[in-house]
Every structure is written in C-alpha cells, then in structure tokens.
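for the recovery benchmark. tokens below, seq after
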C-alpha cells in the first residue's frame, strides 16, 4: 500500500511525496494561492488554414483555421480559442496574403472578445502581391468567457485573400502563467 507524505519547511514550500515502484515521485508546490499548473492541464493549441479564403478589400475578416495540429485541453473550436484556465497566454498568428494586383496595405490582428486587441505587422504602400504578416502578444484570458480570434485585412484594387498552409497561415497559443 502506498501513502502520500506532506511536509513543509520554513520557506513556505509544501512537498507531496508518493512512493513509486522504482523510487519516490516528488511534486513541490509554490507558496502561492490559486491554480497550480501541472503537466497535462496547461492549455495549448496550434491550428492552420487548410483552404484559401477570399476576403473583401478593406474589410477586417475573421481568419478561418480548419485544421488542428494539437489542442491539449479542447479549447479551440470554430477558429476561436476559449481557454478554461484563467491566465496569461502567448498568442501567435501568421497570415499569407495574396492578390492578383498590387496591395496598398495589409495587417494581421489578434482580437479578444470580438474587438481588436493587438495589431501585428501593418504594412502600407506595398509593391508586391503576396506576403506574410505576423501578430504576437501576451493576452490575459479569464478562463470562462474570454476568447481570442485572428483577423486580417488587405486593401487591393482586385481580388485578394488569405492562402493556406501549416507553415504560412497559422494560429497558436499556450498558457504562460496562471492567474
């Protein structure tokens, strides 16, 4: 029969020890309140665009990510990340924009709860028709109602959109620190 041993020291740390078949496993908890993160409950996800998406010139459009690479806590759905653990998340995105004419401006943005939260690269006076723009930020999410999405905009005199590929149009994030 196994037992769990709880011991503390003057630093405020509490150590839980449980014997294992080949030795002892130890988990040390910090002297802090709130959620203690252990391997397995730290939300992280990665997704990419699997089909091209036409977007109307000069209109901010939600970017659709159809393929999940991983979703450790089932918090990514319908191109939206809604974590169930409150904390600070590193959010990253890249969009590969294309058009059949020269572009005048383009941007990739991180949206939180339906509003612009962080602009990524924002280019104006573009002289090419294809390019990739990234966005990255640390975002606090409350673990219940907060969510993040990626939006893109391109201004072109012709048709334009966002192209596909796991290495060029992606959206990912992970918990950096619990609240």
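predicted aa per position
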């Amino acid at each position: 029969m196994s037992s769990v041993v709880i011991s503390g020291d003057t630093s405020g740390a509490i150590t839980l020890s449980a014997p294992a078949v080949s030795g002892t496993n130890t988990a040390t908890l910090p002297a802090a309140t709130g959620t203690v993160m252990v391997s397995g409950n730290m939300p992280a996800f990665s997704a990419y665009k699997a089909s091209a998406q036409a977007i109307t010139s000069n209109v901010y459009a939600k970017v659709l990510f159809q393929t999940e690479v991983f979703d450790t806590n089932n918090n990514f759905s319908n191109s939206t990340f809604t974590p169930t653990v409150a904390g600070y998340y590193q959010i990253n995105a890249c969009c590969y924009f294309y058009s059949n004419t020269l572009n005048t401006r383009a941007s990739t943005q991180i949206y939180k709860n339906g509003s612009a939260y962080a602009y990524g690269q924002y280019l104006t006076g573009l002289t090419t028709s294809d390019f990739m723009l990234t966005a990255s930020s640390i975002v606090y999410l409350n673990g219940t109602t907060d969510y993040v999405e990626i939006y893109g905009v391109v201004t072109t005199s012709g048709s334009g959109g966002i192209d596909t590929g796991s290495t060029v149009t992606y959206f990912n994030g992970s918990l950096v620190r619990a609240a």
